[in-house]
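Sorry, explain these tokens?

***
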Amino acid sequence: MFTRRQASVLAGGLLAMPWVKPARAAWPQDRAIEMIVPFPPGGGVDAAARFATHQVTPRLPGVRFVISNRPGASGQLGMEAIFNAAPDGYTLGTIGSLNVSTLPLERPVRWKAEEFTYIANIVDDACGLWVLANSPLRNLGDLVARLREKPEALSVGSAAGVGSDDHLVLLGLEEAANIRALHAPFNGTAQVQRDLLSGAVDVASFNMSEGIVLMREGRIRCLAQASPMRWSAAAQVPTFRELGFDVVIGSARGIVGPPGLPAETVRMLEAAFRETLADPRFVQDAEKVSLPLRPLVGADYRAMVLAEGEAVRALFARRPWRR
């Protein structure tokens, strides 16, 4: 019979042998989860990713998220990286849902909208048209009147470029008001805000949460917000519908994974996000950082994205855009 000392020595010797390995921790404890953001830091999708991962971490014991910004081609590069990642739970992504449906209308992409693993939507952030605080365009009527008088007399920069929600809100207004602006596509909110503040563009199109800080500082104004009703954080800004133009569009931002994620991984992620989204503290924290929430989990999130895609294709049939 082994003494306690002999057993201890034997165990130590076995662990030192290269072919005897200790048991590995299971997902998600054994290594960090990469959260791909297909846009630069500082924009709305990036903000949603960082906020959501911070909030959900306590509900996934041992989890570590690493944010990886992969901008380019209006989000195409990052979304292809998400879709084509190994389905092992170690690569997820935060997306703006419209790009899933708009980009395939313009060019070949390496994803199918219906095949992403839809985990949880976090935010639905309406678009707005923004001008400098001292702009002669005092309201949306001024913008429409100027462009009716002289088409393409004003430049409108869209934060996420051709086919993005920021572009589609402009297309919607052009269709509703029978006007034409000079569209200037950008590759991120920070870039278009820089050019708006410098006067390089007359008007900028980006989401309401992305402009709220600059608006509160008195540096920019919002002519209209493309939401069904006024967002409480910008209650002074009228909606397009209030001003006579039926334009409702924004960016739903949520967490997805590649096709074929293991069922147990999906179950754990959905449960963690469902609990997080229902927590009153989560709602309060979102209000503090001006995130307009639209919590949807799993199948409900997928249904929303696919329905949005149908609406986008109908607009494209009427007003096709090309890069």
